[in-house]
Amino acid sequence: MPELPEVEVVRRDLAAEVAGRTVVGVSVTGVRSVRRQNPEQLVRRLTGAGLGAPGRVGKYLTIPLEGPDEAVLVVHLRMSGRLVLADAGDSLAPHTHAVLRLSDGRELRFVDPRTFGELFVTWCTGGTGGGGGGRPAELAHLGPDPLDPSFSEAVLTQLLAGRRARLKPLLMDQRRLAGLGNIYTDEALFQAGLRFDRPAGSVTPAEVSSLHCAITGTLAEAVEHRGSSLRDAQYVDLFGRPGGYQSHHRVYAREGRPCPRCGRPVVRRRWASRSTFLCEVCQP
């Protein structure tokens, strides 16, 4: 599943290539991909709309639609979804479920083999969903975004304080913190030297500081390398190019390979139906 860095890469690509364009036509062939509303309603609302500066809340993309009603297009890639920018004459990839034809002659295509992803138009209060401070009601349940400047050590302290939940599941709970998934939680916990199954409330102030730095630093580094593309090759950027951060993973998917700090083998543990990668020496 694309996590925060991958979605942020797509957001930046959209900001450079799509913001300011007008949608001149829309076609929807995958009803499941627009399941929150009638496809005809989606087509009507998008056709003729200008696209504003895209934003992001955790793993959700938000694209404001120019107009008086503060409408916003929300895109969630989930497990296998991706946005592709292509020339109008290019052949459609399999599993293309929606196409937005743009005023510059190109098309923004939503491709999703497993059809868990979705796009829908909704409305924001308190600012547009992209560049402003508001969120659509459908995203109100999400916790703070760890790349937002408001995500401070104090916010993380409050998130962990008194919690009996184990550290990794809590960090991955989108209601608590929006954007972290399996890859970057493992990487951040390694950077901070913290074990995944430790009670969240036991983390000391010094460890909170290390964890905050590890989360924000890992995510920023991953964005710089344009995200992680794993063996399934599900994630590619807006132009179909894979990310490069998988070559910089310290522990994720590196079972049996030497820890970059101590040289001991990285181990894989099963927890809550997930694989977790760690160094049991550096993360005691």
What features would you describe in this structure?
With 284 residues, the protein is of the alpha+beta class. The protein folds into two domains: 4-139, N-terminal domain of MutM-like DNA repair proteins (Alpha-Beta Barrel), CATH 3.20.190.10; 153-278, Helicase, Ruva Protein, domain 3 (Orthogonal Bundle), CATH 1.10.8.50. It contains six helices and eleven strands. The protein has helices at 4-17, 39-46, 153-160, 167-172, 182-192, 205-224; strands spanning 23-28, 55-57, 60-64, 71-76, 82-87, 96-102, 106-111, 118-125, 135-136, 267-271, 274-278. α1 (4-17) packs across α6 and α5 (182-192) crosses α6. The model is unreliable at 127-133 (pLDDT under 50).
* CATH class category name of the largest domain: Alpha Beta
Our Rg estimate from Cα atoms comes to 20 Å
CATH topology of the largest domain: N-terminal domain of MutM-like DNA repair proteins
- Strand adjacency order, main sheet: 2-3-4-8-9
Q: Roughly how many Å apart are the termini?
A: 28 Å
Order of helices and strands: HEHEEEEEEEEHHHHEE
Outline the low-pLDDT stretches: 127-133
Largest sheet: 5 strands, antiparallel
The proportion of residues forming helix, as a percent range, comes to 10-25%
The proportion of residues in beta strands is 15-25%
Q: Tell the overall outline.
A: globular
| Number of strand elements | 11
The CATH architecture term of the largest domain is: Alpha-Beta Barrel
CATH superfamily of the largest domain: MutM-like, N-terminal
